[in-house]
Amino acid sequence: MTILDLIILALATYRLSELLANEDGPAGIFARLRKWLGVEVNEYSQLEASNIVAEMVICTYCNSFWLGVFWCIALYAWSGVLWLALPFALSGFVVLVDKLE
Length: 101
Hints:
mainly alpha
């Protein structure tokens, strides 16, 4: 694994973690996934977990660990996984730059 591979996978993990925990995503796919996994929205528009899986989903630190495990296994099983991670990495880079402004 090169340093570029590591950067791509790290940025992809960051972006997917943010999408899963905090954003609705295209066509509300991540909002629907969170609801299906047991995440509810309270009267103050805050996310609340109804089970342990839902707790892990709404915690960026928790889900980033499991997404990192996914990327490691995927990289081991399929060397072409970087092409899957690249769009998320590019998006993650843009989000980080935007947050710095």
